[in-house]
Write a structure and sequence with these properties.
single chain; about 240 residues; alpha+beta; Ribosomal Protein L22, Chain A; 4-stranded mixed sheet; 6 helices; globular
C-alpha cells in the first residue's frame, strides 16, 4: 500500500492594522508604557509629529504583545539583533512592526520569523520611480517596472518595495542587505512572491509573502520564513479587547 505524504500545515500569521492618527488622543497613555530607552529614542525626534507617531506605534506594539503574552504591556522586555530587529526576551513569539504616515502594521507569529512593511504611495520626482529603481532594484524588477504603463509605475514601485522590505525585515537585516541581490514580483495585482535570492538561494522555497489590505494611497506586505504556505488573519485595532493602561 503506497504511503501518502501529508501536506505541510500552513503557518498562521496575525497582522494588526494600527491607526496612528486616530489614536493621537491616547498618546500620554501609550507614553507611560515605554521603557527609558524608548523614551529617550522618542525624545530624539526633532518634530513633534514624528515623536507622536513613534510613541503611539511603540505603545500599541506593547499593548498587542501584552494581549498575546497575558502580561502588562509596560513590563515586556526586548532583545535586539545585530541590525536592530527586536524580539521579546525569553519568549519564542516572533513579531515585526512597520509604520508610515498615519498607519502602523504589526505581524505576529508563534512559529516563524516574520517581516512586515507599509508604505505611503508618494508622488515621484520629475524622473519618476524608474531612476530610483535602477539604483536599488534587481535587473529583472527594473525590466518589469519599465514595461509598466506610466500610470501604473508608482503603485508597481511600492508593491515591489514593500515586498522587498518585508523580506529583508524578516531576516532582521534592514538595508544592510543590498536590494539588488534578490527579486520579488512587481505587478501590484500579482501574487507577492520571492522569485530569486542570490544572498540565500534556499529562501525561494522557504519564504511566503502576502499583500495586505491597506487604506487608499498605501501598500503593505508581510513575509514569513517557513517551509509551508501561510494563513494571514488581518486584525483591526478595534478588534483588540484593550486592557486598562
Amino acid at each position: 500500500m503506497s504511503s501518502i505524504l501529508a501536506a505541510p500545515i500552513p503557518t498562521p500569521i496575525d497582522t494588526w492594522k494600527i491607526p496612528l492618527a486616530a489614536l493621537a488622543a491616547q498618546r500620554r497613555n501609550f507614553q507611560k508604557l515605554l521603557n527609558p530607552a524608548e523614551q529617550a529614542r522618542a525624545a530624539r525626534f526633532v518634530f513633534d509629529h514624528d515623536q507622536e507617531r513613534f510613541v503611539i506605534a511603540r505603545g500599541a506594539l506593547r499593548t498587542v504583545l501584552g494581549h498575546y503574552l497575558s502580561a502588562p504591556p509596560a513590563t515586556i522586555g526586548f532583545n535586539y539583533g545585530p541590525h536592530g530587529k527586536p524580539s521579546v526576551q525569553e519568549c519564542a513569539l516572533e513579531f515585526n512592526l512597520s509604520h508610515a504616515a498615519d498607519w502602523a502594521y504589526l505581524a505576529i507569529s508563534k512559529s516563524a520569523p516574520v517581516g512586515i512593511d507599509v508604505e505611503r504611495l508618494r508622488v515621484p520626482s520629475r524622473h519618476g520611480w524608474l531612476d530610483l529603481a535602477r539604483r536599488f532594484f534587481s535587473a529583472s524588477e527594473v525590466a518589469e517596472l519599465t514595461a509598466m504603463p506610466p500610470d501604473k509605475q508608482t503603485e508597481s514601485f511600492f508593491a515591489c518595495w514593500t515586498r522587498k522590505e518585508a523580506y529583508i525585515k524578516l531576516h532582521g537585516r534592514g538595508l544592510s542587505l543590498p536590494l539588488a541581490q534578490f527579486s520579488v514580483s512587481t505587478a501590484p495585482d500579482s501574487k507577492a512572491t520571492l522569485r530569486t535570492s542570490e544572498w540565500l538561494p534556499g529562501d525561494v522555497s522557504h519564504t511566503a509573502m502576502h499583500d495586505l489590505s491597506a487604506p487608499q494611497g498605501y501598500r503593505a506586505c508581510v513575509a514569513a520564513h517557513t517551509e509551508s504556505s501561510i494563513i494571514v488573519c488581518q486584525h483591526q485595532w478595534a478588534d483588540l479587547a484593550l486592557k486598562k493602561f
